Amino acid sequence: MLDILIYPVSGVMKLWHLLLHNVVGLDDSLAWFLSLFGLVITIRAIVAPFTWQMFKSGRITAHVRPHRAALVEEFKDKYDEASIREMQKRQRELNKEHGVNPLAGCIPSLIQMPIVIGLYFALLRMARPEGGLENPVLSSIGFLSPAEVKSFLEGHINNVPLPAYVSMPVEQLAYLGTTRAEVLTFVLPLFITAAILTAINMAMSMYRSFQTNDYASSVSNGMLKFMIVLSILAPIFPLSLGLTGPFPTAIALYWVSNNLWTLLQTIIMMYLLERKYPLTEEFKVHHLEQRELYRMKEKEKQNFLWTRRKNRALMVLTPWNASTLHAENVELTDMRNAALAEKKQAVKEISNKRRETQRAMNRASMERLKKRRAEVKAKKKGLIDASPHEPSPSEEAEETK
């Protein structure tokens, strides 16, 4: 399975290496070094139009959100067939009017993730050949021939071999003609740079999310919280993985170049987005209202949790009031759970009724489709059966004679 992912990566690297080494005439090691940047340029240039569509689609979806919220509010208590059809019709018209494409945000990840995985395993196979670096059994890796794999293994950047990594055994480092200190001196600034660029990219992504987050959606709010945690942890990965894992020097070079591309691309696309598709006043008002409502709910939840924690602490400090404080906590919890359950049940009932109506509509649609197909089939069969028995005009004239 992974071999399929390795082929496009190895093919791009091979073309860049042939261009830089055979055509331009660069040194073999430098050609391999620059081919990594060429790989980033090629892949990210292919993905760039889809990334722009993702940015654009996210902004258009944000502009549509106030209209969609108004539509949902208008039909929230209706579950009859006419209302459902009208709502679906107006949703389609809304999407068509604004050009909403729900799949636009998925394409960049679907293209880029296999490339990153393929690159990692391609470089890892090149840096860790079968039989070890001392007695390598060289074989083709994707489109790369054994001779090209050998030239990669012999490549050096600033006297540091491309396949070397910090956690590599000392014997293998000595075989490659380097030491752990030399490799660390070269790759540590690269991993630090990759971590800094990752942090900046995450910060810019967080800024975009705060600009257009859908505070009315629990999924969107959960994703925003997850991104906050991820923005703290993500910069640590390049350092920890680079210094402790089998990540060759070539991977460090790729990380830096890829994160640098991402930063420059994000800056340019955010500038174009603000110029061509600025946030509308209607969205800003709706977004502010939803955010304030979300904050009120969060504040209410925090007050409830704080009251329970305070009562629990008082139960320890004043044990003679423990039963009263415990009863108060139970009453607060029951009241809150009852209120939440009541709201949830009301929404669930409407949802179930709407689902039943939709199922009935689907069944009726299937019945109409089956009936239409049966009519068409019967009509075709009637024409076929009738055609041999119907005499032509010449045959009718002959029979008359």
From TrEMBL:
NCBIfam families: PRK00247.1 (NF001300), yidC_oxa1_cterm (TIGR03592)
Residue ranges, compositional bias (Basic and acidic residues): 349-358
Transmembrane segments: 30-52, 99-123, 183-203, 224-245, 251-273
GO biological process terms on file: protein insertion into membrane; protein transport
Keyword check for Secreted: no
Quaternary state and interactors: Interacts with the Sec translocase complex via SecD. Specifically interacts with transmembrane segments of nascent integral membrane proteins during membrane integration.
Protein name: Membrane protein insertase YidC
Domain Membrane insertase YidC/Oxa/ALB C-terminal residues, every copy: 32-270
GO molecular function: membrane insertase activity
Family: Belongs to the OXA1/ALB3/YidC family. Type 1 subfamily.
InterPro entries: YidC/ALB3/OXA1/COX18, YidC/Oxa/ALB_C, YidC_ALB_C
Cellular location(s): Cell membrane; Membrane
This protein's GO CC annotations: plasma membrane
Any Pfam family hit: 60KD_IMP
Physiological role: Required for the insertion and/or proper folding and/or complex formation of integral membrane proteins into the membrane. Involved in integration of membrane proteins that insert both dependently and independently of the Sec translocase complex, as well as at least some lipoproteins. Aids folding of multispanning membrane proteins.
Keywords: Cell membrane, Chaperone, Membrane, Protein transport, Transmembrane, Transmembrane helix, Transport
Region (Disordered): 349-401
Membrane topology qualifier: Multi-pass membrane protein
Signal peptide bounds: none
Domain of life from the UniProt record: Bacteria
